[in-house]
């Protein structure tokens, strides 16, 4: 196993990365740098301390497993963990090897899931819906038919409604017109919303379509 002096440049760079990551994801994520060359006092630095550990504490089971076997996976991501007080944690552990293929350091991220689970529960409750004694519609009649037809047209082109190019949007309006969907109340507004463009753009597409149709008729 390399000496501390051999691995210190790596550990110094790793500590800078840990600081940046912890500041980006504060206050939810604890980031720990382990010196695996000193397993009894492996914690070299701990940023945004959520676990209550301190610099100089020993390596965890994950660190000891890496020290014991160079074949241990470099990255173990998003595994369930918990702090000493029982708070649920999502952890990721990244091991770094030296030139000989032995693990010399590890970067560990521990995300406190307490707040996120509370938010998840609140959102689930907020978005929960019940039944109504009557079926109520608050959108223009037939708008869903227009959206479904736009979706199917885009899917046929292996695209999405908002990714359609101008010639494809003009052809889409031609399809909607032939199928009578543009006769539905507020159809142009529905088309604009689903394509993610302004109503003025849709009316321009319609004008270009009409001009193309008139030109085609003039040539017959």
TrEMBL record:
Q: Which residues form the YheO-like domain?
A: 12-121
- UniProt cross-references to InterPro entries, sorted A to Z: DauR-like (IPR039446), DauR-like_HTH (IPR039445), YheO (IPR013559)
Report which superkingdom the organism of origin falls in: Bacteria
Transcriptional regulator DauR-like HTH domain sequence ranges: 146-206
Give the protein's recorded name.
PAS domain-containing protein
